[in-house]
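Hi U.,

Before I forget, here's the chain from the pilot set. I'm dumping it here mostly so it's searchable later in email.
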Amino acid sequence: MSTAKPSFTAPTTPQRVGTVDRVPPTGDPVGSQRRCHHRDGVRSAARLALRFQYRVARLPFHLLHIAVLEPILDDSAPTRLAYERLLIDCDRTVARLLADGAAADRAERLRRRSAPARYTIARRHRQIQSDTDAVLDRHRARFEERRRHTDESR
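Structure:
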């Protein structure tokens, strides 16, 4: 009786090179794709959990904004504008890092709502700077005229 030895091959495992899974030629490319999809599922679940945590953490800040800052401070109050800028920056960062469309929408709505006040303040500062430059130009011209007059009289 001859007993044939079963042919046994060791299972192949993907070799990690950088961030790409390289499957040996005898490997299972379908299994490799399943692992990639599984990894993507884990990442999306982690992002979903982080988005939820951000929304929960942002809730007190949103309530402070709605219940305290909006009724008390006008649209152009520096404190309110700084606080809104902080919320906009936080929402944009979360939108970029966690691919959160809702945070991006919140940031854009808040930016649009505060834009007129910010532009008004910027125009006012620009006008003040322009007026100051005009006064300095007049003083400089008067100084130069007096200096020429004293040089001529010597």
